[in-house]
Amino acid sequence: xxxxxxxxxxxxxxxxxxxxxxxxxxxxxxxxxxxxxxxxxxxxxxxxxxxxxxxxxxxxxxxxxxxxxxxxxxxxxxxxxxxxxxxxxxxxxxxxxxxxxxxxxxxxxxxxxxxxxxxxxxxxxxxxxxxxxxxxxxxxxxxxxxxxxxxxxxxxxxxxxxxxxxxxxxxxxxxxxxxxxxxxxxxxxxxxxxxxxxxxxxxxxxxxx
Length: 209
Fold this sequence. Notes:
Blueprint: H1 9-29, H2 35-42, H3 46-52, H4 56-79, H5 84-101, H6 103-110, H7 117-139, H8 149-166, H9 173-184, H10 200-205
Helix pairs in contact: 1-2, 1-4, 4-5, 4-7, 5-6, 5-7, 5-8, 5-9, 8-9
């Protein structure tokens, strides 16, 4: 297989400008942000953007894959924490901090976009680690036994919604929401749940607001 030719200096600079601009615009406006706005912020023509990134997914992958990898690193630390509850709680807090600070990453976390192989691989790894974190905490008797990984997705979506709604008036309000949530996940606070957890198929079909 032929080795890809390196980009010319000016092309490489344009690509880097586009990635930086996309990272900022996606952070503020989410993944539906207009691509022409990203091109303007990068100081290039929209045609240059499409030359470098033919699909939105390719641009998202380049701009936000570092955050997806950061989420994996958070989970890797939590999965081997000496105290399973501390591992679980730190995973929730640090993960929610990523979501609270970046609308684009919140969108990545909640839905799949074609053309994002790096992010997809990180999300797959994250799902495996999340199961490990939950299983360890339940086995240690510090997390309610009926919690499933799919429940965590719904709970973090709720935190992300709080962060988005209060970002301008009380940017740390989500931390109170999370503290209340964590207290409710302790075994001593558990009561029987009225319905079963979402299946993987149901979770993929869900449409968070």
